[in-house]
Amino acid sequence: MIVVMKIGTPEAEVARLNEEFRTWGLTPEKIVGKHKTVLGLVGDTVDLDPLQLQDLSPWVEQVLRVEKPFKRVSRTFRQGEASEVMVATPDGPVTFSETSPVVVVAGPCSVEDESMIIETALRVKAAGAQFLRGGAYKPRTSPYAFQGHGESALDLLVAAREASGLGIITEVMDTADLDRISAIADVVQVGARNMQNFSLLKKVGSQDKPVLLKRGMSATIEEWLMAAEYILAAGNSNVILCERGIRTFDRQYARNTLDLSVIPVLRALTHLPIMIDPSHGTGKAEYVPSMAMAAIAAGTDSLMIEVHPNPAKALSDGPQSLTPERFDRLMREELPPIGQAVGRWK
Ligand code: PEP
Ligand code: MN
To answer: Among 110, 146, 189, 258, which is best to mutate for testing ligand 1, by the most ligand atoms less than 8 A from CB?
Structure first.
């Protein structure tokens, strides 16, 4: 349930209502929007009568029921206003939001060695990316496949950030590694396979770094939003939702089905920023540019693209990785006209 306060409501009145709601066993969350203050009430509100809440104060403008099972992530909870996830990078703050230019995240699937990660960072930076991605801990289907270099790869990501000025995004697979990862990452990624690892979600929700939450490979939109709800409920509202392709009946020609239709759906349901990953979404480098362009046209707030200096030799996800040259062409020639057409390119 959300309680919309009138413009100019005194702070003391908001505090009084908060206290009142707490005595009812509810957890009020104060959301200060551009124009109005809203109190989101989390807890058992099924038996509450909106009129009863309306009568609590002459400063209450409106009381609305949030019908969906997700509350904090719902668009209604913020009175329709988009949230902004602002990330500090060495080159300055970068904002993920519906009202900001498209943010581009690029880099290899895995951090392989120092020279490749620094070379990739410098190349994607020169092409216009704002973040470097790269896995230190890799979720692999086969236990015999390369599992990532772990802790030592985190040091290489720090070196790449120093060399390039890019922000760093890397995946956490296990709660045991979270402190180490969040100490160095600018954004912590929860991968598709862990989207419903609820203990991990609670843990990333109780640390301060923004979280990139990938959609599970067979997750419904509601399951995905409920996963995000765990992170917000644990105290971290800086969450970015990343669509990375879902599993459908045809896997012969593409690794996954990139669900671009999720963009307008999420826009209507949630205030959280959206990222599209056409690399895992298609699994083939040749399909990545057109899906990246389409994602911008459809209104994504950011893109994640795998780039490797030598895809044929990559230790993971080589077939879907762009070369730095191909990425450069995408960034200079193909994405800007679309981004400019929708007013989202800087
Ligand atoms: C990745 O980003 O390298 C990755 C493993 O992604 P996903 O969780 O989407 O498969
Ligand atoms: Mn990958």
So the answer is: 189
CB 77 within 8 Å of CB 269: no
Q: Is 58 exposed, middle or buried (0-12, 13-18, 19+ CB in 10 A)?
A: exposed
According to DSSP, the β-strands at 37-42 and 167-171 are unpaired
Q: Which domain holds residue 300?
A: 85-341
Query: From the CA of 61, how far away is ligand 1's center (Å)?
Result: 44
Q: Are residues 145 and 218 in the same domain?
A: yes
Ligand 1-lining residues (CB < 6 angstroms): 109, 135, 139, 191-193, 214, 244, 280
pLDDT at 44: 86
The closest-lying atom of ligand 1 relative to the alpha carbon of residue 304 is 2
Give pLDDT < 70 ranges for the chain.
none
**What are the tens digits of pLDDT across the range 153-189?**
999 999 999 999 999 999 999 999 999 999 999 999 9
Residues 99 and 49 in one domain: no
| pLDDT tens column, 8-26 | 999 999 999 999 999 999 9
Amino acid at 338: I
Write the burial class of residue 34 (CB in 10 Å: 0-12 exposed, 13-18 middle, 19+ buried).
Answer: exposed
Report how far ligand 1's centroid is from the alpha carbon of 71 (Å): 27
Q: What is the pLDDT of residue 182?
A: 98
Q: Are residues 50 and 114 in the same domain?
A: no
Ligand nearest to the CA of residue 321, numbered in listed order? 2
Atom of ligand 1 nearest to the CA of 245: 9
Q: Which of 105, 109, 112, 258 to mutate to test the pocket of ligand 1 (most atoms within 8 A of CB)?
A: 109
Ligand 1 atom closest to Cα of 138? Answer: 5
Asked, for residue 346, whether it belongs to a domain, the answer is no
